[in-house]
Amino acid sequence: MGDSSKIGGDGGEGEIVMDEALNLLGFKFTLIGPSKVTGHLKVTKYCCQPFKALNGGVSALIAEATSSLGAYCAAGYKRVAGVQLSINHIKPAMLGDEIEVEAVPIQVGQSIQVWEVKIWRMDPLTPNNKKLASTSRVTLLSNLTTPPEMKFYADAVKLFSKL
Questions:
Q1: How much is the pTM?
Q2: CB atoms within 10 A of CB 150
Q3: Which of these ranges, 59-73, 92-106, 118-132, has the smallest mean pLDDT?
Q4: What span, in angstroms and rounded, lies between the C-alpha atoms of 60 and 56?
Q5: Residue 25 covered by a domain
Q6: C-alpha 103, offset from chain centre
Q7: Which of 2, 70, 124, 126 is found 20 to 30 A from 141 (Cα to Cα)?
Q8: Residue 136 · residue 103 · CB < 8 Å
Q9: pLDDT in tens, 47-68
Q10: Gene Ontology cellular component (predicted)?
Q11: Rounded to an integer, what distance in angstroms lies between the CA atom of residue 91 and that of residue 121?
C-alpha cells in the first residue's frame, strides 16, 4: 500500500485526506482495513509538549483516528463515533523520533466496537527493535447513519485500502 494519508492529486481540490488533523502533523497511513490500521509519524515540534516529548494528546488523537478509520471499514463504511478512550503512556517518544502505530479490533459487534492501539518508538539503528510508548483502548458506536454527502469519503477509503 502507498505511504500516504491522501488520495489523488498534489494538495488540490481533487485530493481526499483520510484524517485532516493527522495529515497536518505529518502522519502517514501504511495500511487501512477492517482488521488493522497502521501508520507512522516523525515526532516534530508540532506534536511535542514543552519538554520535547510526544504530547499525550497527540497520542490520543492518533488512537482515536486510527481506530475510528478501522472501525469505519469494519462497519461496512458506515459512520462510527468514539465513546470512550483509555490511554496509558509507557515510555516517551522524543523530538526527532519515528513512531509506528498499529490499531487492531478486539471486538467488532453490530453496535459497539472495541479497538486496541499501540504506539512504538522506533530505534533508528535497529528497525526491528521498538519500544512501546503507549497503549490505548477505544470503544466506538458503529453502524450509524452516514449522510449521503459522505459517499465520496467511503469511496476514497475503499480505494486507499486496496492500494
A1: 0.88
A2: 12
A3: 118-132
A4: 6
A5: yes
A6: 7
A7: 2
A8: no
A9: 999 999 999 999 999 999 999 9
A10: peroxisome
A11: 8
Confidence (pLDDT) at 153? 87
3-state secondary structure string, 22-87? HHHHCCEEEEECCCCEEEEEECCHHHECCCCEECHHHHHHHHHHHHHHHHHHHCCCCEEEEEEEEE
To the query of whether residue 98 is one of the catalytic residues in this protein, the response is no
83 located within any domain: yes
Q: How many CB atoms lie within 10 A of CB 85?
A: 16
Residue whose entry in the numeric block shows the C-alpha cell 453490530: 110
Q: How many domains does the chain have?
A: 1
What range defines the domain where residue 90 resides?
20-153
pLDDT for 8-61, tens place per residue?
Answer: 434 444 456 889 999 999 999 999 999 999 999 999 999 999 999 999 999 999
Res 163 pLDDT > 60: no
Q: Which triple of cell numbers denotes residue 126?
A: 535497529
What pLDDT does residue 94 have?
A: 96
160 assigned to some structural domain = no
Sign of the CA dihedral running 41, 45, 47, 53: positive
Q: Is residue 61 part of a domain?
A: yes
